[in-house]
Amino acid sequence: MISAAEPAVGIVSTSLPAAPPSEVVTAELVRRLSERLRDRHPEMRGLGHTVAAERLNADGSRRWADPAVMLGGGLYRYAAMARENGDLFYGVEQRLPLMGKERAARALATSNAVAAGTRLEARFAELRRDLAVSLFDAAAARMTTDLVAADVRWLETQVRLGRARVASGGDPASMVLRLENELDRRRLDWTNALARRADAEIGVERILGGSGDLTGGYLLPPVAETVPFGPVLVRFAERAEPEVLRREQDVGVASAAVEVTRRSQRPDVAVGVQSYHELATGTAAQGMLTVTMSVPWFNRANYRRDLQRDRARLASVEASVDDARQAVRREVHRLVTQIDTARREAVLMHDVVLPRTRRLLESLEGLWTSGRAELRELMDTRRQRVEAEMSEVRATGEYWVAMSELLLCCGLEDLETVRELLAEGKAGMEGEMKR
What we know:
Elements: H1 2-5, H2 11-15, E1 22-24, H3 27-34, H4 37-40, H5 42-59, E2 68-73, H6 79-85, E3 88-96, H7 101-167, H8 173-207, E4 217-219, H9 231-240, H10 242-264, E5 269-277, E6 284-293, H11 300-369, H12 375-410, H13 415-434
Helix pairs in contact: 3-7, 5-7, 7-8, 7-10, 7-12, 9-11, 9-12, 10-11, 11-12
């Protein structure tokens, strides 16, 4: 059993790829990479075309309707009637923009263009958040892979030491069996961790448009301070959260649609000029100036229904804005709680559990090497250290993922801006209380 497993020792240490240069995920890194989103991400390109189309639609809104040209002829029983009335007539009629229908249509087109621009920027903010989350996931996956690889190398060292002690007759072969089984399990964990790390890095590439030009790995920054929950943060999030901004622009579009429908029941007024000529001689027989007006009487009930329909849609959009704002308040509280919880766990692991466990592990390693400690106690302590390191990485990743989502809600890019915002809000509230 021992000799069969011996060739496998050192697989991880010899087959580990050279570690690419690592970069800590910071706000500057996210900002630099997010500049590629506008040109490379397919959805951003599609939204950009939509914005261009809506702007062209707004710029192309008609201020005047196209004139109508008339041309016709007449047949008369007597030639004298043709000479007197004319048997060839032509004219032009122009609808006048008197009732504000064209202005309302332009306002609706402009509202659609503004809403499309808001949707573009809101989606860009969401993709920047997704990019930050993917970077933090990739960094956590890389650090987890490194921790597992370090554990594999440690176990390989212990297997070699255990075989030497078994060969010298000092320890039973079951001790090496346990080490080898643990080593094989950790090698499997390392292979799976590599797959998860590759998948996380592919997720980053996907958000960046699948360019495939990113090199190197990422590392998690240490956790920062907590963000206190309060009315200042909530108010700022309500004004800046992308979904709220999108729905507020939808309110503007719905309001413009109501105005278009309201003006559609007004009559259309047009002026026209007509001229009659005798075809045989080309002599002008008579001319006419006309004023025409549509009579929207028979469809008055239908116009009212159309207006009620659009007003109901407007009320629905306004209610959705209120719902989005309430959801933002709940989401901000959840994110602040998650940030605080993850930070406490990461600090506990880093400042208390890991130093204590490392000291005990170093002591046990020395005792086990000299044969004065049991393998079971050494393995249990080593497992506690690895679990604490994994917990710290996981909690740190959760901290920054929640922080990225909070920054998205508030429309901010980095934690420093949040600090300034809270400081300004606190100073403003204290000033109001003094007054």
